[in-house]
Amino acid sequence: MREGDLHQELEERIASELRQRRRMVEALEAEPALRGRMSEVVQVLCAALRGGGKLLLAGNGGSSAEAQHMAAEYVGRFLADRPGLPAIALTTDSSILTALGNDYGFETVFSRQVETLGKPGDVLMVYSTSGRSPNILKAVGRAKALGMTVIGFTGEGGQTLAEACDLCLVAPTQHTPHIQELHLMMGHMICGLVEACLFAGAEEG
Fold first, then answer.
1. CA–CA separation, 54 vs 97, rounded Å?
2. Which residues are annotated as a binding site for Zn(2+)?
3. In degrees, to the nearest 5, what angle opens at C-alpha 136 toward C-alphas 134 and 137?
4. CATH placement of domain 33-198
5. Which of 6-15, 141-150, 159-168 shows the lowest per-residue confidence on average (mean pLDDT)?
6. Separation of alpha carbons 67 and 61, rounded Å
7. Sheet of 55-59: strands edge to edge?
8. What are the helix and strand counts (H, E) for the chain?
9. Do residues 158 and 170 make contact, with C-beta atoms less than 8 angstroms apart?
10. Dist. CA 110–CA 126, nearest whole Å
11. pLDDT tens digits, 126-136
């Protein structure tokens, strides 16, 4: 293929990808129930953090990176120059993860940490594009038993996780990369709204 032809083909494919993402955002905007659940998530997080609770986050693979990313936004800052908010990604300590995986099985790597670090009034936020990850579902069960509130992020077909959580945000697609992109978008919006609610008047940095 000639260089000029390749350049044109790539531009067309990029334009197509951008159109797909525009339709994804339009699909989110068209779901008032999802917007309502996002509002509830913001209120739950604000109440927990005001009451001295903390946020625990977990996911596998790309969703593991999402958990770490969002923990950093809360502990550091998102937009506002404000005090840090207590958030712990359960995906980051390789010694804990490998010890638990080796000694008890990979399905325990998050639930054991929830059992150790969680308490009533805390929030567990979990990411699973399929909604069927055994270690995520086990962590959800442990958190509920401890009296924690559980917020989930999944995609279409993730009914198992959605039914196990107190609140679950379902990306309206079954395509894993698109689910992850929408999770990041929703997570950023929620973090920004939590900041605005807890630190009204804080200057953006």
1. 21
2. 69, 73, 180, 188
3. 65
4. 3.40.50.10490
5. 6-15
6. 10
7. 87-89, 55-59, 123-127, 149-155, 167-171
8. 8, 5
9. yes
10. 10
11. 999 999 999 99
Reference 137, options 173, 109, 99, 118; nearest CA is 109
Contact in structure between 174 and 145 (CB atoms under 8 Å) = no
End-to-end CA distance of the chain: 47
Residue with tokens 């804990």: 96
> How confident is the model at residue 95, as a pLDDT?
98
Cα 99 from Cα 77, distance rounded (Å): 31
Contact 128, 161 (CB under 8 A): yes
Total residues belonging to the chain: 205
141: left (phi over 0), alpha (psi -120 to 50) or beta: alpha
DSSP tag of 202? P
The amino acid sitting at 101 is G
pTM tops 0.70, yes or no:
yes
Show the tokens assigned to 127. 């990411």
For the four alpha carbons of 118, 122, 165 and 154, in that order, the dihedral sign comes to negative
Name the binding residues for substrate. Answer: 60-62, 73, 102-103, 128-130, 133, 180
Residues forming the annotated binding site?
Answer: 60-62, 69, 73, 102-103, 128-130, 133, 180, 188
CB 183 within 8 A of CB 66: yes
Give the pair of three-digit tokens for residue 103: 């000694």
